[in-house]
Amino acid sequence: EPTGNKTAYVNVLKRVSLKTIPKFNMDLLGGEPTLHDDIDIIIKSLCMNNKCNEINLHTNMVRSIEWYSKYDQQQFNKLKINGSYHPQYEKSRDKFVETSVGVNEFKYVSYVCNINIYEKMWREIKAVIIDLLDHGVPIGLQMLSSVSDVWNEEYTDEFVDEFNIFLRETEQKYVKFTDKDNNTTIIDDYNVRLKELDIFYGWSCKATFWDIQPDGSIRNGCTGEPLLLNNKNISECVTCPLTTGCPCTDCYNFYKHE
User: What is the pTM of this model?
Assistant: First the structure.
C-alpha cells in the first residue's frame, strides 16, 4: 500500500464480503506481504469470509519458521503458503530450503515452493530443486516469458530437454482444450507456455481475474477495466487485448471462444 494509505485493505475486505460477490480465491502478493503491518488481520478476515474458498500467501520466505507457524491452526485451514525462490535475489539458499522444509511440515496449512526458471542460473536452481525434493517439499516450476525492455528469456532446446526431466517430480497443473468439434486435448501448463498455446488475442473470454490495486481499487487483470461499484461486470465476457498470452496459469481455464 502507498505511504499515507495503510488501511486501503479495510474497504477491500468489506467489498469482498458483499452479497454480489461470487465465491473467490484470493492471492496475497507483494513486494513481500508478510511485512505488511496488518497481514494477520487480513488473513483472519478472509478465513472468516464464507465467500473465500482459498487464500494463497506468496512469500519469499523472509520470515522465520516460528513466524509462519502461528497460522498452523484449524481456523487458518484456507491458507496456502506459496514460497517463491528467486535465485537472483536469494542470499542464503540453505536458509530458504530450511524454512521451506519446516513450513511444509505444518498440519493445517499447505505449502508449495514455486521456482522461476532462468536458464542462465540453472545450476543453482537445479541444486535447490534437488534439495527440496529430497526433503519431500512440493515444487512448482514457473516458465518465464520475455518482457520487452525488461527481461529476455529464450529457452534453448537442449535446456528444455533437461528441464522436462524434473516435470515428473513437480506439482503440475493440466489444462483441457476443447475445439469447435468437441475434440478434447489435455496438456500440462508448462507446455502451454512453451508452445504459445496461451495466446487468445481477440477471442471472447470470461476473464474473472481481478487485480486489487494499492489504493484499494479493483481492476480486471486482463483488460485493466475497473470493477463496477455494483460488481455487475465481475463475470462478464471480454475481448482479449493481450498479444503476449495469459497473465497467469489460472487464466487458461477461463471459458474462451473465437
Answer: 0.86
**Helix or strand or coil: residue 197?**
coil
Q: How far apart are CA 121 and CA 110, in angstroms?
A: 28
How far apart are the C-alpha atoms of 82 and 186, rounded to whole Å?
Answer: 25
pLDDT for 3:
45
What percentage of residues in the chain have a pLDDT greater than 70?
Answer: 92
Q: Are strands 204-205 and 238-239 parallel, antiparallel or unpaired?
A: antiparallel
One DSSP character per residue, the chain reads: --TT-TTHHHHHHHHTTSTT---EEEEE-SS-GGGSTTHHHHHHHHHH-TTEEEEEEEE---S-HHHHHTT-SGGGTTEEEEEEE-TTT-S-HHHHHHHHHHHHT-SSSEEEEEEE--GGGHHHHHHHHHHHHHTT--EEEE----BTTTB-----HHHHHHHHHHHTTS---EEEEE-TT--EEEEEHHHHHHTTTT--TT-EE----EEEPTTS-EEETTT-PBPPTT-TTTT--EE---SS--SSGGGGGS-EE-
| Alpha carbons 45 and 117: distance in angstroms, whole number | 34
